[in-house]
Every structure is written in structure tokens, then in C-alpha cells.
UniProtKB/TrEMBL annotation:
<feature type="repeat" description="TPR">
    <location>
        <begin position="23"/>
        <end position="56"/>
    </location>
</feature>
<feature type="signal peptide">
    <location>
        <begin position="1"/>
        <end position="19"/>
    </location>
</feature>
<keyword id="KW-0732">Signal</keyword>
<dbReference type="InterPro" id="IPR011990">
    <property type="entry name" value="TPR-like_helical_dom_sf"/>
</dbReference>
<keyword id="KW-0677">Repeat</keyword>
<keyword id="KW-0802">TPR repeat</keyword>
<dbReference type="Pfam" id="PF14559">
    <property type="entry name" value="TPR_19"/>
</dbReference>
<protein>
    <submittedName>
        <fullName>Tetratricopeptide repeat protein</fullName>
    </submittedName>
</protein>
<dbReference type="InterPro" id="IPR050498">
    <property type="entry name" value="Ycf3"/>
</dbReference>
<dbReference type="InterPro" id="IPR019734">
    <property type="entry name" value="TPR_rpt"/>
</dbReference>
<dbReference type="Pfam" id="PF13414">
    <property type="entry name" value="TPR_11"/>
</dbReference>
């Protein structure tokens, strides 16, 4: 009796198990093809898996992804919809892929509606908020873009792209302090990529970019404060300008660019920390300033400044190689925060 029961179970379950194993094998092969840039072969392989399990969320998502790489966005939407209609696994990926396809097709407003729907339907993953922010940014709706990207940061503070977008939003607005804070944190997370080179340049532009010297009066310094900046950052922006202007002081004569960058960065973080009030609840104070003020009070400012500059300055990269112990101490300090 037991033997007959086992045979029956095998007949009912066995084919399904073998089919799933075959699907997994096809998916693994398809992913390899995709990663190698052989998208047609990947799609052909996924189709074999789809013949076995037509409603597989995984297979339909992988097909959407490979068609996206090929630029066949109508099929991206079709396969993504199969996943979304099931309301189960891989929904986040399907929303992101479909939303990106709509945006590339010039249907940015439809993409926005999709991401808004996805946020309401799910727990609001940081990537949904980030991609929604990207769409608003493309439409030059900077306030909405800022709101969404801050929500993304609140959900994942270690997502470099969100900090970079926030920096770009405020750089476009001409807001020095906010641009500096977001740029600094982006460089802290991603210091050695092509994007880091651009971010470091933006940081340098904003740190003293509004300070100029009168060619006819060398001892006269002109400071242009941003008319767009919120009053809560007015004192901090003036302080940034004064720090840049201090390069000409006698006490700073003979200091290298690196030494001045470290000194002024330390002063910037310190003054911001001292300006922070209990009633300040925005991310600039509760997150950025809190972190950087603790850094300014530590012994690791030199290591930090060279770390974030490594993608842009060869001497910083060299410093990191030659000062491995200090870098390890900085890492240990970060882990204890």
C-alpha cells in the first residue's frame, strides 16, 4: 500500500520537479548569455523555459530584461505585465523595468503614474522613489524630484545615486550648502568612479565658487551669496565663502591645496554642527550634518578627505596606499558609529 502511494506521489509531483529543474537550468544559461551581451541567445533560452512554465514570474521578468537591453520596449511591457498581473514574486523588478521602458519611449508621465501606483501597492522600495525622482527631474519638476529622492535616502542611506541626484538638484538651484552636503556623502559612498570625478568637480565649484578677487584691488574680495538659498543656510553659505577667502591669509601661506581642503572641510562640518538646532528636522541637519559633525570631531578628517578625492587626485590615491593604517582606523571608527 505504501509503495503504491509513493508511486502515485511521484507521478503527480515528479514531472513538476523535473520541469522546474529544467527551467532553472535554462534561466541560468539565459543569464550567462545576457551578461555576455548575447541577448538573442538569452531570449531564445528563456523561451524554452517559458514553454515549460508559461506563467513563471522569473522567466517573464528575465525576458523583459533582455528585451530592454535590445531596445524592444513593447515586449518589455508585455512580459512585465505578465509578472505584475500575478501580484507575486519579482513585482518590484517588473515595475522598475516597465517604468524605465515607458520613460525611454517618451512616456515619462505614464512612467510616473506607474511608479506612484507601485509605491501605493507595495511598501515603497527606495528604488521606486528614486526612479520616480528621476522622472520628475527630467520634467524639471525639481520640488517633486527632491521630495522623492529624499524619501529614497530615508529608506536606503547607502544608495549613492540618490545623494548624487539631490546634489544635482541643489546645484541647479544654486544652493551651495545643500549641494556640498549631498556631494560629500555621495563621494563617501562612491569615491573612485567616473561619476565621482564629476561630483568632486561640482563640490569644488560650490566651495568658494562665489568668491572672486578684484583684479585692480588684490586685497579686495567679492562674495556673491545665492538669492535662492533658504535663510536657514544663509550663515553656513557665508561661512563657506569666508573659508575660501581665507586662503589668502598669512596663516595659510605655504599650505598645499590638500591641506587647505582638509582644513576648510573640517571647519565647514564643525560650523554646521554648531549651527544645528533641536528644532531642525530636515535631512540636512538630522542626517548629513549629524554624520559630518561627528567626523569633524574625530581624528579621521585627513583620511576622509583623501578617500573622497581618490578618483580625482593621484596624490590622494597615493596617500591612501601609503597610509593603510590610518585608513583602517577610519574604517574602524565608521563601524563603531
Amino acid at each position: 500500500m505504501k509503495t503504491q502511494l509513493l508511486r502515485l506521489i511521484f507521478l503527480l509531483v515528479g514531472p513538476g520537479i523535473f520541469a522546474q529543474e529544467a527551467v532553472n537550468t535554462f534561466v541560468e544559461q539565459g543569464i550567462q548569455y545576457h551578461d555576455q551581451g548575447e541577448y538573442d541567445k538569452a531570449i531564445e533560452t528563456y523561451q524554452k523555459a517559458l514553454e515549460l512554465v508559461p506563467q513563471s514570474a522569473l522567466v517573464n521578468y528575465e525576458l523583459a530584461l533582455s528585451h530592454f537591453a535590445k531596445g524592444d520596449y513593447e515586449k518589455v511591457i508585455a512580459y512585465s505585465d505578465v509578472v505584475l498581473d500575478q501580484n507575486g514574486d519579482h513585482m518590484l523588478q517588473a515595475y522598475l523595468t516597465k517604468g524605465s521602458a515607458l520613460d525611454v519611449m517618451g512616456k515619462t508621465k505614464e512612467s510616473i503614474k506607474l511608479f506612484e501606483k507601485a509605491i501605493k501597492k507595495t511598501e515603497g522600495h527606495y528604488l521606486l522613489h528614486y526612479n520616480l525622482a528621476v522622472n520628475y527631474y527630467k520634467l524639471n519638476e525639481l520640488e517633486k524630484a527632491e521630495e522623492m529622492v529624499i524619501r529614497a535616502i530615508e529608506r536606503n542611506r547607502n544608495h549613492p545615486s540618490s545623494h548624487l541626484m539631490l546634489a544635482n538638484i541643489h546645484h541647479q538651484r544654486g544652493n551651495t550648502v545643500q549641494t556640498l552636503l549631498a556631494s560629500h556623502y555621495f563621494l563617501f559612498l562612491e569615491p573612485d568612479t567616473p561619476r565621482a570625478v564629476e561630483a568632486y568637480h561640482m563640490l569644488q565649484q560650490n566651495f568658494g565658487g562665489n568668491v572672486s578677487r578684484d583684479s585692480e584691488k588684490p586685497n579686495t574680495i567679492n562674495i556673491l551669496l545665492s538669492p535662492n538659498n533658504d535663510s536657514q543656510f544663509g550663515a553656513a553659505e557665508l561661512m563657506v565663502s569666508m573659508l575660501e577667502a581665507s586662503r589668502g591669509l598669512e596663516e595659510n601661506q605655504g599650505k598645499t591645496e590638500d591641506e587647505m581642503f582638509i582644513k576648510n572641510t573640517d571647519s565647514f562640518f564643525t560650523v554646521l554642527g554648531e549651527l544645528k538646532r533641536k528644532k531642525d528636522k530636515e535631512i540636512w541637519w538630522t542626517f548629513y550634518t549629524t554624520f559630518f559633525y561627528e567626523l569633524a570631531k574625530s581624528d579621521h578628517m585627513e583620511a576622509y578627505c583623501h578617500y573622497i578625492a581618490q578618483g580625482s587626485k593621484e596624490n590622494s590615491k597615493k596617500w591612501l596606499i601609503e597610509n593603510g593604517a590610518k585608513l583602517m582606523e577610519f574604517d574602524g571608527w565608521l563601524k563603531e558609529l
